[in-house]
Amino acid sequence: MSLVAILTLFFILWALWHPLNAAFSPRFARAYPDLAVRLRAGFSLLVILLAALYLFLPGLLWLPAAGAAVFILLERWRARASWGMRRGLPPGSLKIFPDTWTHDRFYLEQAERHGPIFKTSNFLRPTACVVGLEQGIRVLREQEEKLETPYLPFSDFVPGSMLRYMREPQHSHYRAIFRRALASKTVQEFEPVFKEGSKRTLDLICAAGSADRTGVNPLPYLDRMMLELWLQLFFAIERDSAECRRLLALYPVIDIANPCKASSREIRRAVSDIKAIIEQQFAGWHGVPAPGLLGAILKDNPADARDPVVIGNLIYMLTTTASDMSALLCWVFKNGCDHPEWLERMASESQPTKNSSEPALDDRFVMETLRMRQSEFIYRAVVHDFDCGGFRIPAGWLLRICVWESHRDPRVFSEPDRFNPDRFLGRSYSRSEYSPLGASSHACLASYLVTLLARSFVSELASQFRLRESGESSIELASSRHWAPGPAFRVELQPR
């Protein structure tokens, strides 16, 4: 091999090392499956082109070598923490492919190095990051007209857009509809159904663990449980019915992660089939709304229940919130394995805390799980330049409010890396200190539902089973872009 060929290979590998390392990493492929496929295809094409150049036009090999060298210099120049600060940009590196997917403390370490406002890159897109809920919530509130929720393609299949992407006054109108449907009465009526589903699923995990001493990955069981329960909550679809079985086959097709690799045409057909089943539900009610969200909307205003925007949002809210809920319950398992003393204490407490103004232990367990995991960030796309803490945030950038990192402020939470549900005894936290379910006008509408059902689940787990982890597992970035127990996570349940 000639010297020019060796230098070409050297400079290209140097220039592309970080994306190359990511493209062929199993962890990256699980977090960003589509991007990993595109990167691998791109690198394969590059290898073919370089091989053709080497074989047929070796005299031109200096061109890709020179291009790679120039790219290295420019990328290193732009990756300096001080780049752009003379123009008012925040400090921090815009290195391509930073370690955000390998290291869950990346943003925390950047804040410690550069301050609470810094810049990094979301692969190729510059991102301004804010650590500190007080300032983050203020930015969301004061700069609302200059920000928008980053668009995800699944909204194309929802007439009028998903609620999270709506602007005023459309957003306020539809948010009010869903907020009324999620009234505490509707949620409380559903709690016994959820408790029964939790017990059934825990029994299944227990039986599967008895048959396989290597343990059981709880996430697939939780995913199935949440889809079945959410079909009942949203549309009054009974478990084990023909409609439920049909919907369980259709929902993976429309899943925003697209595990079926479905085409747009296939997704639209599946959405249409789901709407037809919902229409059958309407007909079967004979004017008397069934329990659940759609029934509550119908009872409140029949016209809203027939609104295509409402139906489309309910269809996709079901899949997004079901996966979020199963991920939260998986963290309940993980924290229960890592800190079994809290489940044992919960099982031994026959009565809730005497002071009714204080949250019970199962509630505190969920609150601490939300503080330490699952609640990680709020993203917005910047559509107009604005000032943030004395720094200029340009249009076209992303804005990340770092919730997980903000929940580790030692001035608010003593020993912030210690799992301690009792930190919620004798101390109430303001929204600017503890905000696990979003902030501003786009905060989670279902916060009461999430906490009530998660509390019910952990109570059932603690009172009926003993839990332990089989082997050891690490956490990694999931396809939801949230950190989760890795695929090696296994549990064993034993009846009490």
Q: What is the count of DSSP helices, taking H or I runs of 4+ residues?
A: 19
What is the count of structural domains? Answer: 2
User: Approximately how much helix is present in the residues?
Assistant: 40-55%
Specify the CATH architecture of the largest domain: Orthogonal Bundle
SS elements, strand count: 11
CATH superfamily of the largest domain: Cytochrome P450
The radius of gyration over CA amounts to 25 Å
How far apart, in Å, are the first and last alpha carbons? 68 Å
Q: Would you kindly provide a written description of the structure presented here, covering whatever features stand out?
A:
- By secondary structure, this protein is an alpha+beta fold.
- The protein folds into 2 domains: 1-78, no CATH class; 155-495, Orthogonal Bundle (Cytochrome p450), CATH 1.10.630.
- Helices cover 53% and strands 10% of the residues.
- The protein contains 19 helices and 11 strands.
- A 5-stranded mixed beta sheet has the order 1-2-7-4-3, with helices on both faces. The chain has a two-stranded antiparallel sheet with strand order 5-6. A two-stranded antiparallel ribbon has the order 8-11.
- A hairpin with a 5-residue loop joins strand 9 (475-477) and strand 10 (483-485).
- Helix 9 (184-211) runs antiparallel to helix 10 (219-235), helix 15 crosses helix 17 (361-372) and helix 17 packs across helix 19.
- The longest helix is centred in the middle third of the chain and has 31 residues, at 308-338.
- It is globular, with a radius of gyration of 25 Å.
